[in-house]
Amino acid sequence: MSLSRRGFLKLSMAMAGVGAATGLAGCQNSASTNGGAKRVVVIGGGFGGATAAKYVKLFDPSVDVTMIDGQSSHTTCPFSNLVIGGLKDIDEITHDFTALEKRGVNVVKGWVTGIDAEARTVTLKDGSSYEYDRLVVSPGIDFNYDAIEGYTEEVANTTMPHAWQAGEQTLLLRKQLEEMEDGGTFIMAAPPNPFRCPPGPYERAALIANYFKENKPNSKILILDPKTGFSKEPLFREGWTANYGNMIEWIGGDFGGGVTKVDPDTMTVTAGGTEYQGDVINVIPPQKAGWIAHQAGLADDSGWCPINTGTYESTMKPGVHVVGDACIGSPLPKSGFAANSQAKNCAAAIVAMFHNENPPEPSWVNTCYSLVAPDYGISVAAVYAVEDGKTVSVDGAGGVSPLGGKNAEKEAGYARDWYASITEDIWGS
């Protein structure tokens, strides 16, 4: 790569809104041009939803923006592995919505139970409802518990946490690791594609290994994976060996690595006909779009939400846009940075539509940093554009970390810089 990693990070943060900003000059008077303030309702306060709410308001302050979330703050999945590995406190990755309110976004705490796309209304559990001209849905993920025999939501909440939605299960998994005896076995059941944060399981294994190395050096980590390969595999394998020797073992789909059954009573999992026993078991099940997307008829048979390229308007429900992990945005991965980039393009498209203008040409960026150890980082980065109506990767833009551990310490710093930058962009003042 001719561009430095730090330089790419700065360029990425800037480019995330380039396509969105293009052509929006003068779009500050939708109330007068449309006979009254337009109304945008956003469901979800995470990377996609909070970004969409903020940027619609930035692009056109006259738009009435309401963001609805079931919580009063958002705990990020990015960097939650640092909490599990004992390197951060969960408060450090939890962000409230105060700055959004200061920007004029009406933040509502409540659970959405229904979307009526024809009447253009959103209904909450308490019976209240909100009308909209455009709706942005960013519900994140839900889980296909039926895919693994014996694995239920109750098992996840009490015995074998997935911790793939940051919060209580993040703390539960951390507690289980702290209570595990030295010499114990940690088993991870990795998910099949597609899933949230492709490098996430392998970063988690690394940071748990870092904790074991310092506190329980005789312990072992076993990853049972239905896939035949995984994101940044050569970099992870190199980093695992360099930092932890043979502590981490990965068994992929070619060798029967996919978990098909669990038994919380005996703390065992079954993969490829073989039963494995662990002291702490982290089961990350197959995933799909968040519940409300299915309730509203936004998801197809794949379990995810098809959208129009660039505008992120649902192909199934007019007037409704879906951003973040729930949408079918390939080749963009399901990541926090991708959700942020998607939401900015979506916000720009909505404002343009309110002014009867063509949405600006979209562009996207994504950078995925992973920490193999506190001072050992790796990354993959890409820029995306539209060609012939399809999203494609831009040749020569982005890249991956070099093998050999070169710049690994610097990349660990870049990872922390990235997190600080993007969370400030979304939830900061």
From TrEMBL:
Sulfide dehydrogenase [flavocytochrome c] flavoprotein chain central domain segment(s): 170-285
Secretion signal span: 1-20
Record's keyword annotation contains Signal: yes
Keyword Signal (UniProt): yes
Stated name of the protein: FCSD flavin-binding domain-containing protein
PROSITE patterns: PROKAR_LIPOPROTEIN, TAT
Domain FAD/NAD(P)-binding: 39-155
Pfam families in alphabetical order: FCSD-flav_bind, FCSD_central, Pyr_redox_2
SUPFAM superfamilies reported for this sequence: FAD/NAD(P)-binding domain, FAD/NAD-linked reductases, dimerisation (C-terminal) domain
InterPro entries: FAD/NAD-bd_sf (IPR036188), FAD/NAD-binding_dom (IPR023753), FAD/NAD-linked_Rdtase_dimer_sf (IPR016156), FCSD_central (IPR049386), FlavoCytC_S_DH_flav-bd (IPR015323), FlavoCytC_S_DH_flav-bd_sf (IPR037092), SQRD (IPR052541), TAT_signal (IPR006311)
Record-annotated Flavocytochrome c sulphide dehydrogenase flavin-binding domain positions: 360-427
Keywords of the record: FAD, Flavoprotein, Signal
Organism: Guyparkeria halophila
Gene3D superfamilies: FAD/NAD(P)-binding domain, Flavocytochrome c sulphide dehydrogenase, flavin-binding domain
